[in-house]
Amino acid sequence: MPLIIDQEKCTGCAVCLERCPFNALTIVDNLAKVDDVTCTLCGACAKQGVCPFDAITLLREKKEAKSGIAAHRNIWIFAEQKKGVLQGVVYELLGKARELADVRQQEVWAVLLGKTVAHKAQELIACGADKVVLVEDDCLEFFEDETYSTVITRLCRNYKPEIVLCGATTIGRALIPRVAVQLKTGLTADCTELHIDPEKQLLVQTRPAFGGNIMARILCPQHRPQMSTVRHKVFPAAQPDSSRTGEIIREAFNAREKANNARVVDVIEILEDTVNLTEANIIVSGGRGIKGPANFAMLHDLAKAVGGAVGASRAAVDEGWVQYSHQVGQTGKTVNPKVYIACGISGQIQHLVGMQSSDVIIAINKDPDAPMMKIATLALCGDLFQIIPELIKQMK
Amino acid sequence: MIIVVCIKQVPDTNNVRINPETKTLIREGVESIINPFDCYALEEGVRLKERLGGKVIVLTMGPPQAESALREAISLGADEAVLLSDRAFAGSDTLATSYALAQAIRKLGHVDLIICGKQAIDGDTAQVGPGIAVHLGLPQITYVRKIEAIENGIIRAERLNEEGYDVLEVSLPAMLTVVKEINQPRIASLKGKMAAKKAVVLTWKAADVGVDPALVGLEGSPTLVVEIFTPPPRKGGKMITGEPADIAGEAIRDMRAMGIV
Ligand SMILES: Cc1cc2nc3c(=O)[nH]c(=O)nc-3n(C[C@H](O)[C@H](O)[C@H](O)COP(=O)(O)OP(=O)(O)OC[C@H]3O[C@@H](n4cnc5c(N)ncnc54)[C@H](O)[C@@H]3O)c2cc1C
Ligand SMILES: Nc1ncnc2c1ncn2[C@@H]1O[C@H](COP(=O)(O)O)[C@@H](O)[C@H]1O
Fold it and tell me: Could you tell me if residue B257 is inside a domain?
């Protein structure tokens, strides 16, 4: 703990207690004591002038980083689960982590939190994990930002991973930034490529910025762990091998880690939307050219025929033809399916930034000059109300 | 309710270019807009204020010209504006940015609610909001699509996720990030535009908010951008024309050849 309270100087006056934004300080036996679960090392108590006796110092991270960096080992992934089902991106993380760990000659550790999720550990091992850190408690049944991030921060402090990977899901993007800030380390969002620099042995994180107009390569040289969130569907999923063996490390949940200022009241699945857009291999999207809500039924039929999910342009969402959760683009979702079928979507830049990394793009549009037609792998030029029924019919 | 809305001025993604030598963005000649998600954050803040009383303070960290974004926010209903601007902040990553913004919010005194956009369209990181929450020791609800209630110091809101939504309750003060679905932002009224012209924008430097200079800017940023490049533009493919039945037939043949269906 780099926060040091000099026992000789401390008088137990409790002035520092009021300055701690996290209630991490207490007086025990007439001395100030810091709680290492809640302390974020923000340094508020160590600021000059706070302690009348200069008893508190925060050793600055930089000094610590250089000596501490080598102590970090292993590649961690966050094994996000909902109702005991691992999210698709977890398998992709495992595949990538295995690759990175082999280069670094280190282990893959999966971090699994939940109510009763122990039965998932074996699956994680089969897919490449060497160790599974398992924390089970009733309080972990649903994802709650503070509780989850407190637990994972503690695990990272104790076991010191070198790299932490997490899916860029709703949960991942709420959880991992909190962990990174508590660990005071760097976090690179939405990576689409990860590898180890052969010389520096650092994690090279490549990510799109400005809606994919620009790519950036990012390092985190002096802080550990190196942390990234990873887009769905970018890396291939690890294939299970039931002969693989690994170790399960059970970690107790500390009751104090339950946030007392937040709770999950309800979890609601919207049934019509059960196909998760970000995890879909094929997306059939409709735009203004679909002309009305009733015609979306035709897209659902096409989606069913090809085994895909239904997306939409903002125009279709703003018209009220389909719910916002289907919207692809700058102010909607970023998707990366194998196949994106754009029906009656012109392809304005704000839409393209959400889907242009799809492997194959199929556009159906009567305007051959629409921007979507210019980037499509297959540009089907004609009336979608005639072409789509033909596609459905001929595919049967 | 004292509400802080964090907004960021971003270049319009339509016209982004980079300087090949310095590998930095060319900001000149590119139109700047308020990050679209932050417009929803602002609108939600203003609606809450109109319903529950209090005020909305817009806060941005950025170069001096970001002041125009703050004035625009005032025209859209914000009451006060703070610009956090200092060369020391240059090069801040999300850790450093969220720390600086958190320090500015501390200086504002009592705050009930902080609202951010889901993400900024330049970096798309979605990390600054949660970062602010941690620096201030606050609970958070991300991807908020609806605020259901605020009563007895507790806010209940819906968090949009991949399968539907979760309903969460957190105690105030709290930090929210919002998605587009939450509201339909208003258009500036004439009165708003007048207010924007007259408004006094507070400008704070690093020292004013008591940030440790070692923890902001490039030096305070653990991440290091080592390379920026433009991906090759996506090439077009094959145009298929003709009778609908023939188009569909050819497309299906090609899709089969690619192993799609
Ligand atoms: C800040 C901001 C954020 C935005 N965010 C998003 C976003 O997240 N997602 C998004 O999608 N948009 C977004 N937009 C809007 C975007 O600029 C476009 O307005 C929108 O994508 C257009 O949707 P569309 O292609 O469905 O409609 P249109 O541009 O109207 O295109 C309709 C297309 O359908 C074709 N068509 C019509 N009838 C037929 C037919 N019978 N058969 C075949 N083809 C037909 C037409 O030729 C045309 O190309 C954003 C805009 C702004 C300013
Ligand atoms: N420089 C900034 N000034 C004020 N608010 C910001 C700044 N950067 C990010 N934010 C807020 O944080 C949200 C998420 O940004 P980002 O983490 O960059 O994707 C934005 O929608 C803003 O509300």
Answer: no
